[in-house]
Amino acid sequence: MNFGRKVYNETLVKAAYLFDQIREEEYLLFRLSAADFALFVPEIFNSKVVDELAERIRFVTQKTDFFIRRLTVSVSIAFLDELVAHYPIGQLYLKMSYLLKNRLDIAKEKGGDYVCKESDVESLLPLKGKLLIVDSDDLHIQVLKHSFDNAGYDTICAINGDDALNIIETEKLDLVICEMMLPKFNGLVLREKMLESTHLKQIPFVLMSYVKTEEYLKKAQLFSVEYYLKKPFMLQELMGIVKLKIG
User: Is the pTM of this model over 0.70?
Assistant: First the structure.
């Protein structure tokens, strides 16, 4: 059932509030991309504390009448101690990110409303590159994110031009995949703003849209957009472009 963008955003705000009420004051809560949140629990050596916190988040979210309809969450848990014996210090951040995503996928495959804290840590694939996907269509953005996560890419998402620009300016990205029609400002305006920076203009930019007119094509070429995909397109086509540009 689709309640629309307004309800979707309100749900995320309510979820953030709920998680904030559950956490201890010293725990750090972050909103990541799309509907993903991270909770950093510093200096905890008793895994039981973290297990109980994760189960409480899962249970309270599932039981609350705070949302317009019943909501479930998938939770992944990982500790740095799991990784330090297998990887150099310089790789720990990326390996932790991939481990958490891997366990989150396992939790989702279990049907959601599930906490995953175990998976193989020795065979974590190296991340192939960092992508930003920008789209106001939640279903489309989740399909792309899931596909690129599974293919070994570090995937970040944004739902409007303003958030996308902030991410582009702060993250070290290898490629941007962007919808033309966006809240705040559209994909071509976003690309134009990237061209104002010597560094940002070098990031490959893929534009996608249900609309592909001669006027938009000329503007895309003017703004050094190499690829302009008309929706619906084959996922393999987009995957091929990403592999060509960043491996």
Answer: no
